[in-house]
Amino acid sequence: MGGVAFGVARWGGAPVSESINRGSFVAFSVMMLFVALLGVLLPLLT
Q: Where in the chain are the domains?
C-alpha cells in the first residue's frame, strides 16, 4: 500500500523525499486500521 502511494506521488510530480513520506504515512495508516479492526472483530469471532 505504501508503494502505491509512493508511485502515485511520484507520478504526480512530487520529489522523492516527499513521496517517501507520503508512502510511509499511508502504509502506517493502513497498518493501524487493520490492527484496530482486528481488535474489534477478534472478540466478536470468539
A: 2-45
Using H for helix, E for strand and C for coil, what is the string for 1-46?
CHHHHHHHHHHCCCCHHHHHHHHHHHHHHHHHHHHHHHHHHHHHHC
pLDDT per residue as tens digits for the range 1-41: 678 888 888 888 888 888 888 888 888 999 999 999 999 99
Give backbone dihedrals phi and psi of 13, rounded to 5 degrees, phi first: 95, 10
Count Cβ atoms within 10 A of the Cβ of residue 3 and give its class: 0-12 exposed, 13-18 middle, 19 or more buried: exposed
Query: What is the amino acid identity at position 43?
Result: P
